[in-house]
Amino acid sequence: MHETFGQALRRLRGSRSVRDVAQLANCGKSHVSDLERGKKFPTPEIAEALDAALDAGGELVALASIRPGRSSLEQADALQRGLYEAFAAGPMTDAALEEWAYTIARHGRATRYRPEAEHLPELISDFSDLRLLLSHRHSAPIRRALTIATAQMAGLMALTLLKLGEPSARSWWRTGRAAAAAAEDRATLSWIYAHESYQLYYSGDVPGAIECAARAQQLAGGLPCVGDALAAPLEARAHAIHQRADATADALRRAEVALERLDAVDRIGSAFGYSEAQLAFHAGNACTHLGQTARARDEHERALELYPADDHTDRALIQLDQALCLLADGQPAEAADQATRTIVALPVQHRSALIMYRAEELTASVPRARQTLPEMRVLRKVLALPPVMWRADMVTIDRATATDASVISEILGEIEEYYGGQNVPGDLDQIRGALFGDRPAATVLLARDEDARVVGMASYSFLWPAAGADTSLYLKELYVRASARRRGVAGALMAALREAAAEAGCSRVEWTADSDNPPALAFYAALGVEPHDGKVMYRLRK
Q1: Are residues 158 and 65 in the same domain?
Q2: Is residue 393 part of a domain?
Q3: Does 471 map to a domain?
Q4: Are strands 396-399 and 443-448 parallel, antiparallel or unpaired?
Q5: Do 157 and 74 fall within a single domain?
Q6: Which residue intervals of 183-292 are DSSP H helices?
Q7: Which of 5, 98, 137, 297 is the S-S candidate for 63 at Cβ 3.0 to 4.6 Å?
Q8: Is residue 462 a contact partner of residue 504, using CB atoms and an 8 Å limit?
Q9: Quick one: 40 and 158 in the same domain?
Q10: Domain membership of residue 214 as a residue range
């Protein structure tokens, strides 16, 4: 049995009287007695006073966080928090500072590949712990190190909120600047100004972006500094928007010099680094704005070769720049198609507000006379979709059972309506016979949201022979309900179909799509699947 607060208090009191302990903790004798007998539960303040009086090393504080009536998980969370607070109140060691440096560096790397909505809660949690450390007394060197850590974490918060399209990012830049200035760390202050210039750039404040970028470079003072390497190419991009070719070229030359001067540890994919891939991306963006499409394409291709596949944000922004080049070269249909493919191919959790904003900019740049192109209509539909994003763990895929016949019936009616017919639910007896009888004609996979509601369906059967004596999985119907579209449900169903095919030993998965369904065609194209020519479809009705 776990020891309670009262039992631990009695054990730690030992031979001392209740009166003596009460005097040491500055509380009433009867109150201490009631705590020992479990008649009362301590406040955090009383627990801390008793812990200090009995030299309990945080044991009583931790036990006080476990309140009666809480679930085991709640008790575990409270216990963890109590223990961390006890450690935070102690001396800050070199090992603890090194651990914080690693934690912040890990967050910096995560900005390059983690979805912002998933990353933000962890940032907040770690920042809360850092704030607790700052509330205690420390020596001057340790407080300076913690203040620099605060500036860096504030910058990461701002950067993450920026990508999410949250205006509150601006206040975090101010917090970061204040912390860096308090620590008198010019390199960190330069880094914050450089990143802040990107927010001003993307929000349309080009003069403000140039001013912030110049401030970052001035703070760097000509020394090797990530802030300098980040700021110079942003300045180039800002000048390019105003068609200042000479100023753009000068800023890009400074960016190349700044990158070359960085140590290898800073030329990395991280919010705290700057890489050759980023310089190629930024140079390509500047050339795109200047209308130098040939050079821009070369930079785009080089950047895509250098960027890792999991750096979804920058790769998508580069592909949207490629679309802008197509538009500049008089190919609006191809530009719209490129933009649509970029967004649809992007994992839904990475479709940040920043990327959607850039795609909307491209749409607005298309001449009015070409806005009626079919490719433009498809792009506008994609951009008009709700911004709600589901995590992968919010959708589960399972095989339908006989108890799902009613919801399958409803979905069949919705499918009929989607294709222009009437919403007439499928016949339940036919469904049960076809799917759950002695000789099932097909298998159905259902996608369910976190509330167990069915949001999508895929039906398939096996065909033989495929190639030689192989078997293939044939996807007959893939459908996502209207309220759940463009949230990753179709992708989850397709992944489950591939798994089903692999488990059955199939050599391939096959399906058809209507030629007048552009969103479906764009989705399949985004999977990297090419249409298969050479087949003619026949249908013989009874």
Answers
A1: no
A2: no
A3: yes
A4: antiparallel
A5: no
A6: 186-202, 206-220, 226-241, 245-261, 276-290
A7: 5
A8: yes
A9: no
A10: 148-162+171-274
Closest CA to 204 of 232, 241, 172: 241
The residue type of 265 is: V
The domain boundary, picked from 250, 274, 298, lies at 274
Token reading at 490: 């179709």
Per residue of the chain (542 residues), give pLDDT as tens.
467 888 889 999 999 998 999 998 888 888 888 888 888 888 888 888 999 899 888 888 888 877 665 556 666 666 676 666 766 677 888 999 999 999 999 999 999 988 888 888 889 889 988 988 888 889 999 999 999 999 999 999 999 988 887 777 888 999 999 999 999 999 999 999 999 999 999 888 999 999 999 999 999 988 899 999 999 999 999 999 999 999 999 999 999 999 999 999 999 999 999 999 999 999 999 999 999 999 999 999 999 999 999 899 999 999 999 999 999 999 999 999 999 999 988 887 788 878 888 888 888 889 989 989 999 988 888 887 654 444 445 688 999 999 999 999 999 998 988 777 888 899 999 999 999 998 999 999 999 987 788 999 999 999 999 888 989 999 999 999 877 776 778 888 998 899 899 889 999 999 998 877 767 777 787 676 778 877 788 878 77
Inside any domain, residue 399:
no
CB 66 within 8 A of CB 78: yes
Residue 268's identity, in one-letter code, is I
Helix or strand run (H / E) with residue 39: none
